[in-house]
Amino acid sequence: MTTVRAVIYDGTPGGIEVADVELAAPRPGEVEVAIVAAGVCHSDLHVIRGEWVIPLPVVLGHEGAGTVTALGAGVTGLAVGDHVVLSWVPQCGTCRQCGLGRPWQCETAARVAATGVLYDGTSRFSRNGTMLHHYLGVSSFAERVVIPASGAVKVRSDAPLDVIAIVGCAVATGVGAVRNTAAVEAGATVAVIGLGGVGLSCVQGARLAGASRIVAVDVNPAKLAVAIRLGATDTIDASLADPVEQLRDAVPEGLDYIFDAIGRIETTEQAIRALGPGGAAVIVGLPPTGARASFEPLVLAEANQRILGSNYGSVDPRTDIPLLVDLYMDGSLDLDELVSGRRPLAEAVAALADLEAGRTLRTLLVN
Ligand code: CND
Ligand code: ZN
Q1: Model's pTM, two decimal places?
Q2: For the domain bounded by 173-311, which CATH number is listed?
Q3: In the chain, where does the domain assigned CATH 3.40.50.720 lie?
Q4: CA of 357 to the centre of ligand 1 (A)
Q5: Tens digit of pLDDT for each residue in 291-326?
Q6: Is 133 in the active site?
Q7: 2-168+334-366 has which CATH code?
Q8: Catalytic annotation present for 169
């Protein structure tokens, strides 16, 4: 048992605390990782706003990178000192979805995530004898974590951990939604609604895919400017006029793919309504539990359009995360532009408030 600093949320409004907690040693099949940097994602905001039902109290954070500090029994392929990016779908490799080649949909990982524990049904975090839950099997807002070995993805040691931490959620999710879920073809016309860490990663995925048009939509002019630097060909300020009409005007031949990277019901509906013939709307952003969107089935059928959901960019974390790190290191993917700042773990509350207010892109909490 070691004592580590961690960010705990107890389910009450504003109930976030940075405190010392106890971390138990890794059990068989688990590893301990010293977190170097953890990214603050809008999904953490959904949690502290009470928009999703998750087991509480919980150690927050699901994006991060660090070094392996201890191995549980039977762990192979990892060594103390390895650099790892954390995956929030620590795939089991044996369930039906893993067998079908869909590790991002691992049934075992989904089950343990829903109950806030590790694979053996227990947690490694506690505080004064009370169990604390893991968030998505990661809980990266801590100095050290214990996670399933498959959630620690080994990456090259020359890549800066306080940049590539964001590959673990924002970049895998956004680039993956474009390249894997939608499989955008070269020459396709693309729009991305919402330009946070996830949406700007969609923009970069579209650039890598060779999209002919990449229309970036946001209500914040600063985010539109970043999107242009990352490869957007056009920008739309959705606060000025109906974004659906602006999208249709911008690409009269029709949009082939529209990514909703926000998850507000109105933006999901905009993504569907603004599609061109044969187009696909890809839902990447996440709304509160139970929220409903609507669309007109007749239009969808007549125009042969599709609505796709994208979980974790349909990535296989073990192969896609190292590949995305390589793309950063060879200059094909710009991650530095997505990291708007770094703060010590103790300033987690301020970092979450900055994201909520739209002042930041990805803030990294560093140890
Ligand atoms: P972040 O808060 O950084 O960005 C959201 C962006 O949307 C900001 O730039 C806002 O200015 C912009 N915005 C807000 N309202 C509007 C509007 N009406 N029209 C246009 N733009 C608007 O969020 P993030 O990038 O960290 O996360 C985005 C979503 O993705 C969020 O819902 C998160 O929970 C989700 C997500 C999904 C997945 C997945 O696997 N599908 C993984 N991680 C995060
Ligand atoms: Zn996330």
Answers
A1: 0.98
A2: 3.40.50.720
A3: 173-311
A4: 12
A5: 999 999 999 999 999 999 999 999 999 999 999 999
A6: no
A7: 3.90.180.10
A8: yes
